[in-house]
Design brief:
The protein is mainly beta and 424 residues long. It has a domain at 140-413. The chain contains 3 helices and 35 strands. The strands form 5 sheets. A 12-stranded parallel beta sheet has the order 1-2-5-8-11-14-17-21-25-28-31-33, with helices on one face. The longest helix is centred in the N-terminal third of the chain and has 17 residues, at 3-19. 52% of the residues are buried.
């Protein structure tokens, strides 16, 4: 090869990164403009949606690829109170691509298909997706994670942070709000999930289908708050849910009634769960689940271990339970408060005032947990931490952080996804 040709090839290699499409900001104000911007998006592009109401009759597709350093961003200007996507079909957002941040959008289902509709579907190829400061209303499944046929591929590194999800009225059927099947490193942080009861069995947040190394933290889950349960069963947070069919389980994880381990190593910490008509915390054939520093109030069952097949040890530590815990050989328990007097510990738990009551001194735990370095409010835990989700004295007003879990662009206590939540 000649010297001239070698120099030319070297120059081309140096220039190739600069020749990529430059990231741009795109302002959109119609449904067609939103679709076109997403279809043509390049890594680093920011698509800003003008305030208004947008009617969608077909799913909005997210099929492109950003990059971990330069995700494609779809941002509702003014937040979900200003930008509303009305979903008139069976699916709102369909995400198969990689490296997206979706923020400040209200997805509201309307029409005859809502009782079977999904707000957001994350398919098996989805990677490094962040959905934050969004609101979903009146869906059967507000966010659904899917396991791919044949390959069993499932989403990875998905963050759901500071969102609100609820149904305005009950309907004949079930509503599983955050229904996350399969995948690795789900991060469910600071969301407000409420009023999801219907006539069937309804879950607020649950993982199943061999989800792995996921964290559910700093969420407020209320089966009923602004309306009644709807006549069915509402469960708060679950590792295992109602289990997957065996066709969705890997060969070395296939049991009789589903996956032998429906979840591996899931952690639920610093959550507040209240007003469920059935169990607040739940395990169904999950392996190595941990429930750490949670508050459970006004639920008939605090924690149910529903193991059809062996689950291994379930750690239950530093929680505050209004009721008692039933004995189970799978549970390793320490420093929990059971049958707690909430009227003494907190000012008004039913009104979401978890500031210190006259008896809050009893919340002091014997030792901090290495997995729990902060509390529901984002405050650093002390060397003599409080049991439950709130470190005393309370650093935030739980009710005042609603409706979107207190997660705003200026809230530095929340993760700035997607890159800082990677564990590999």
């Amino acid at each position: 090869m000649s010297v001239t040709k070698s120099l030319f090839l070297a120059l081309v290699c140096l220039l190739l990164p600069a020749l990529r499409a430059q990231a741009v900001e795109i302002n959109v104000s119609t449904v067609d403009e939103v679709r076109n911007a997403l279809n043509q998006a390049n890594p680093g592009d920011v698509i800003r949606v003008a305030p208004g109401v947008y009617d969608f009759f077909d799913a909005l597709e997210f099929d492109s690829a950003g990059s971990p350093a330069e995700p494609i961003r779809l941002i509702g200007q003014g937040g979900p109170d200003s930008v509303e996507f009305r979903i008139n079909g069976s699916l709102g957002l369909s995400i198969r691509g990689q490296d997206y941040v979706i923020e400040g959008i209200w997805l509201r289902c309307q029409g005859s298909q809502c009782r079977n509709a999904r707000g957001i579907s994350l398919w098996g190829s989805a990677r490094r997706i962040t959905i934050r400061r969004c609101r979903t209303t009146d869906f059967m499944q507000h966010v659904k994670g899917w396991i791919a046929d044949n390959t069993l591929d499932a989403p990875e590194d998905v963050t759901l942070a500071g969102n609100e999800a609820y149904n305005t009225a009950g309907f004949n059927g079930r509503s599983n709000v955050l229904n996350l099947d399969g995948g690795t490193r789900w991060r469910v942080i600071g969301n407000y999930v409420h009023d999801y009861g219907n006539t069937g069995i309804n879950y607020g947040i649950f993982l199943k289908g061999a989800t792995t190394n996921s964290v559910i933290e700093r969420n407020l889950v209320a089966g009923s708050y602004d309306r009644s349960h709807g006549g069915g069963i509402s469960v708060g947070i679950s590792f295992g849910g109602g289990r997957m069919g065996t066709q969705w389980c890997a060969a070395d994880n296939t049991g009789v009634g589903g996956c032998t381990c429906e979840d591996f190593g899931g952690i639920a910490r610093n959550n507040i769960v209240l007003n469920t008509s059935d169990t607040a915390l739940h395990v169904n054939s999950a392996c190595g689940s941990k429930f750490l520093n949670n508050i459970v109030y006004n639920a008939p069952t605090m924690l149910q271990i529903q193991s059809f097949e062996g689950t291994g040890d379930i750690e239950v530590r530093n929680n505050v339970f209004e009721g008692g815990l039933t004995g189970n050989s799978n549970v390793v328990s320490s420093d929990n408060m059971t049958n707690a007097d909430f009227t003494a510990l907190y000012n008004n738990a039913g009104g979401l005032d978890f500031s210190a009551g006259a008896g809050a001194g009893d919340l002091v735990a014997s030792a901090p947990l290495p997995e729990v370095v902060a509390d529901y409010c984002g405050a650093t835990r002390s060397n003599t931490p409080s049991r439950g989700a709130i470190e005393m004295p309370a650093a935030c007003d739980v009710a005042g952080r609603l409706p979107l879990g207190g997660v705003f662009e200026s809230d530095t206590t929340m993760p700035n996804p997607p890159t800082d939540l990677r564990t590999d």
